[in-house]
Structures are given as structure tokens and as C-alpha cells.
Amino acid sequence: MRSLPHGPGPRRLIDYGCRVKIALMDSGIGLLAATAAVRRLRPDADLILSLDPDGMPWGPRTPEDLTGRALAVAEAAAAHRPDTLIVGCNTATVHALPALRARLEPAVPVIGTVPAIKPAAAGGGPVAIWATPATTGSAYQRGLIEEFGGGARVTEVPCPGLADAVEHADEAAIDAAVDAAAGLTPDGVTTVVMGCTHYELVAERIRAAVQRPGAPRLVLHGSAGAVAAQALRRIGARPDPGAPAEGTLTVLLSGREGTLPASASAYAEGRLLQAVTQAR
Fold first, then answer.
1. Is 159 a catalytic residue?
2. Mean pLDDT to the nearest integer, 56-83
3. What is the number of other CB atoms lying within 10 angstroms of the CB of residue 185?
4. I need a surface site. Which of 157, 163, 215, 235 has the fewest CB within 10 A?
5. What is the pLDDT of residue 9?
6. Contact (Cβ atoms closer than 8 angstroms) between residue 23 and residue 85
7. What is the distance between the alpha carbons of residues 41 and 62, in angstroms, rounded to a whole number?
8. Using CA atoms, how far apart are residues 69 and 268, in angstroms rounded to an integer?
9. How far apart are CA 94 and CA 62, in angstroms?
10. From the candidates 37, 89, 94, 264, which is the catalytic residue?
11. Domain range holding 141?
């Protein structure tokens, strides 16, 4: 991969089939969905996953405190000289994206994670947005609904405890949180937007809880695929799903090199990464 000058904006890359290096950040394993999407698009990509076990969860923190934690996690990843950085967390995108871009760009393009409201609303039916309490009702999410909702009937559904339950692979807590959110989801909803990256790891459990007997199959919209594709576009790299699976994996835990939390293996996305060679 050869880096070329590109004026004052983000650097652009000319892809000659060489590997790219992509970093992803989150407080915990919510970044697994986007990481797996990147891995499928570019099996040869070197991956840097920067988590913050010392500071998680980020959701209850003040915006200023969250931004400070996010900057530290991002800078730990940036020290490994990635071509781009994905913020694999909706809440961090809401509160910290401007600060992250101000600190890292143009050297490292920063890709935020935005709830997939636009494609969900394009389906025409009633939409529910499942999100953390910190994101539900926020000016950020309301602005996205106003801008991209396209007149669709949109219900915001807070999901207290769901991200934490997924983080720890607590089966009983996941079931309880999903059932509670399903109870707040109006009958007739045809589409659910998963407005927290953790939720994509339990997508089929969400579908099973919301799906009504005799109704058309519920449509679920996550952000992982779109975010992975956007990261490649920003650096001028082509998807190459058939590339040799030679990419390496580096895991940073509040800046220290380590391994993925044991809970990651509870999900298909985490098990996909178990076969990736640890960087040396």
C-alpha cells in the first residue's frame, strides 16, 4: 500500500493488492461486528482493536469524560500507524467524533458509526430504533431521524442493560433486556435499527423477540457493513474478499497489548477472529 499526498485532506491510498491496516475502537466488544465486516471484505487487512476495559462502560459517563477516554483509546491505536480508524461505538460517535477527527485527521481518517436510519426508513414501514438510554432521545439521534427519516413513523426504544449484558455474554440478562425492549416496540413495526453496535451481536435474538406471528419477516438494520465499506473508500482501498487470509490482529486493552475478552467467543463475530494470527 502506497500513501500519496492529497492536499490538506485525509491521505489517499493507491491499492495495488497490498494489505491495509485498519484500527477499530470501542469501550468493549461492540466493535466485533464492524471488525468481522472488515475481515470479510479484506481478509488480508491487519487489524488493530483498541478497547477500554479500565474505563467501560462509556454510556453513563459525561460527554467530557467519555471524550477523554475515547481520545486515549484512539491515540493508543494511532501509535500503530493504521491507515484509518473506525469508531465502533454509536455513543462515542455522538459525543467524541469531532474531537477524534480534530486530533487524528488528516493523518488518520476517522469513520464514525451512525444508526442506519436512512435505509430503514426507505423501506416505508414503521421503524423502531433500539439504542442505549444515552443515545435514545439525544439531539444527535433526533437530528438523524429528522434528516433521514423520510416521513416514516419512527419510535425510539431505550434498551437499558442490553449492551452490558452482551458485553459479558450474560444469557439471562440478554434475554431480559431484549424482552423488555420488545415490549416497548409497537405492534406493526416492520424494521428495527440496531442503534448500538453491541446489539448486532444478538441480532437474531432481537428478531425472534419482535417478530409477530403471521407478519412479514422483520428487517434488521445494523451499521457494520456500511462502516467497513466506508473505511475502505476513505483510504482508496478496494474490497477483496478473495484475498489470502493473512491479516494479523493486535488487541489493545486501555493501551496495553493483550487478547480479546473471553466473552467475545460467545459470538460468531468473535469466533471469526480467533483464527487471525496475533501480530508480533
1. no
2. 94
3. 19
4. 215
5. 44
6. yes
7. 35
8. 28
9. 12
10. 89
11. 117-222
Same domain, 90 and 50: yes
Answer yes or no: is pLDDT of 14 > 50.
no
| 261, pLDDT greater than 80 | yes
The answer to whether 245 and 274 have CB atoms below 8 angstroms apart is no
SS3 103: helix
Q: Is 89 a catalytic residue?
A: yes
Alpha-helical runs (H) found in the chain: 32-41, 63-78, 90-104, 117-122, 139-148, 162-167, 171-183, 203-210, 224-234, 268-274
Out of 20, 97, 196, 224, the active site residue is 196
Residue 46 near residue 19 (C-beta atoms within 8 A): yes
Q: Cis bond leading into 57, ω under 30°?
A: yes
With H, G, I as helix, E, B as strand and everything else as coil, classify residue 259: coil
How far apart CA 275 and CA 257 sit, in angstroms, is: 18
Same domain, 7 and 67: yes
**Total tally of structural domains belonging to the chain:** 2
Ranges 11-20, 57-66, 236-245, 268-277: which has the least confidence: 11-20
